[in-house]
Amino acid sequence: MDYALLCGQARELSQAEGWYPALFANAAALLWETLPDINWAGFYIARRGQLVLGPFQGKAACIHIPRGKGVCGAALRENRTVLVPNVHAFPGHIACDSASNAEIVIPLRRRDGGVAAVLDIDSPVLGRFSEEDQRGLEAFARILEDAMKGLDAMEKTIYLAGGCFWGCQKYFDLLDGVIETEVGYANGPTAHPTYEQVKAHAGHAETVRVVYDPAVLPLRELLERYFQVIDPTAVNHQGEDYGIQYRTGIYYADPQDAPTVSAALADLARRCDKPLAVENKPLESFYSAEEYHQKYLEKHPDGYCHIHFD
After folding, report:
1. Which of 118, 171, 187, 277 has a 20 to 30 Å separation from 159 between CA atoms?
2. Which domain holds residue 253?
3. Which one of the listed residues 72, 164, 168, 305 is annotated catalytic?
4. Burial of 175 (C-beta count, 10 Å sphere; 0-12/13-18/19+)
5. Are 259 and 213 contained in the same domain?
6. Does residue 306 lie within any of the structural domains?
């Protein structure tokens, strides 16, 4: 397969079009005409925490795919390429076409690093996609991704650390304009930390990944709501929780958010009589916390929380 030629064709097709449907429609047709031994090629667009069917070539497909469900949902949740030699051995596989045996799904990311859409390709041949195919198709996806970045985002992501992440997640979930939240460990020195390691002061911050609709909840307003439930001058503690993991911080994945974050903190500093302790940094890393931490206060309504909701 000549992926250099395929990428060249994609580059030509994407230069004049930055609207998702038209861009994806041509890309799906190009893949359908070019790749041998495939029976579906197309796109799912990320919207409000799930995937919604976009332009494609092949048989009728699922319209909605929940986050984490099947191969596409796994790629959305993990924000990485998922290559499956045998889909029947993949937990939770969604069988839209019973003839499909192998699959590759590649995320297309927004400027802030979040998933805007996924490219999904199926094959009736077991083990159809090799590492070489993955590299070539990822290069193809990056061309489309670059074309998409001129668009206004329908969803954006910011990472907010405000002490114990149980209460912070519940608080953000209650805000109009917040689409999705996830708790995890941000900007620490080691990869894939456990909760026990974070509690032992490994250096990560308990953080909430907040996906929001900027048309409903602009970043500046979201930050003001965040400031309402933290003590911005407390160093490495919030409420009764003490330790470096409970520090406050705003970690942005989109560099274009940096001026908004700095301006919001400058305004906050003028309102405080002590120096701010809120970190203002680009996101360096974020690792999802264990499942029992996700939506903890929904599972345990009487659980500890340093934020008062009354």
Report:
1. 118
2. 156-299
3. 164
4. middle
5. yes
6. no
